[in-house]
Design a protein that fits this description.
The protein has 165 residues and is mainly beta. Helices cover 7% and strands 36% of the residues. The model is unreliable at 158-165 (pLDDT under 50).
Length: 165
């Protein structure tokens, strides 16, 4: 299926993938759009909603479009377990990046409005390792691949994947 070059963001379907208070839109992605190097997501978290504690095999850049919340970032991503996370406030027009394999969690800690972020990731599709808590050893983290929003894309035959120009 060919996608138009210019699209209205409100026409792109969203899904919560079974997570209450969460909405995910793949603006441009691996399977459906033929992206090879990056994916772009629009994610919305209602008050109290959060990502799982996780790490992944890609770099990730966030831009906070609206709302506020907390980025929880592990101090020991390269030790035996993540450790007690640093709590960093995030707010409209703030940006932050997550290096490859740094354990983190994004949380709408604000109780009065949605947190909406634009996310750019490298090297799609993403391999995500999920933790039960911040003391779980890295080797015990559970691999989720493909991740929920990549499952459909990987089942859809992509057309014209070019290796190089």
């Amino acid at each position: 299926m060919a996608f138009p070059l210019v699209r209205n963001l409100t026409d792109i379907p969203s899904n919560n993938y079974g997570r209450e208070g969460f909405s995910h839109v793949t603006v441009a992605g691996f399977g459906l759009h033929g992206m090879k190097e990056i994916e772009v997501w629009l994610q919305t978290f209602s008050p109290g909603a959060r990502t799982p504690i996780h790490r992944h095999s890609c770099e990730e850049v966030f831009i906070v479009l609206q709302g506020s919340g907390t980025l929880l970032l592990a101090p020991n991503s390269h030790m035996k377990y993540p450790g007690e996370p640093e709590n960093l406030p995030i707010f409209p027009n703030s940006t932050f990046h997550i290096p490859v394999n740094d354990v983190h969690q994004v949380w709408n800690s604000n109780d009065s409005g949605d947190l909406q972020v634009l996310v750019v990731i490298s090297r799609p599709p993403v391999k995500i390792f999920i933790y039960q808590d911040w003391t779980m050893p890295h080797i015990a983290a559970k691999l989720k691949y493909p991740y929920y929003w990549d499952e459909e894309c990987l089942q859809t035959p992509s057309n014209d994947h070019k290796d190089e120009l």
